[in-house]
Amino acid sequence: MKRIHGIVIAGLLVVCMLMAGCTSQPAEPGNATGTPSPAATTAATPAPAERFAFNETNNNETVALPAGSEIIISLAENPTTGYAWNVTSSRGLQYVNDTYNAPQTELVGAGGVHVWEYIAAEKGSAEFSATYKRPWENVTGNETTFSMAFTIE
After folding, report:
1. 40 vs 19, 27, 45, 85, 90, CA distance in Å?
2. Are strands 84-89 and 112-120 parallel, antiparallel or unpaired?
């Protein structure tokens, strides 16, 4: 049973790492081919914000990024076990959204990925931290944790 859990966890980590590297650029305003329309070429458009993606491999890191950047944090989660991430974020990070992406499998009880989206809103220092635990259980100090510090420039 422990071997199966280990294989499932290893598979989830691989999926998370692959998902963190998969990003795409939006098409230019205009038509479906990405060709700018005449109005889009004459109007000034603001520079797109940079997007930064993080996952379990970035635990305990400190990262410098420009103000206005999008921050995406993806962590493996399996709510069918009762476990969930208890997240806190500090001033400087503006919460945008969080979603749970269920696994793309028919395997009952398989875990998915929880994704949080923030904006680096204020220059200075900010922090994101999370504890993976069952909400009805007391904190023991043995819980899985994740934290990142950000220097917003």
Report:
1. 31, 12, 8, 42, 37
2. unpaired
Nearest CA among 89, 86, 92 for reference residue 64: 92
Enumerate the β-bridge partners of residue 30.
36
Beta strand 70-77 with 51-54 is parallel
pLDDT tens per residue across span 37-67: 444 444 444 455 799 999 999 999 999 999 9
Token couple for 51: 């997007």
Nearest CA to 99 out of 82, 114, 84, 119 is that of 114
**pLDDT tens-digit map of 57-100:** 999 999 999 999 999 999 999 999 999 999 999 999 999 999 99
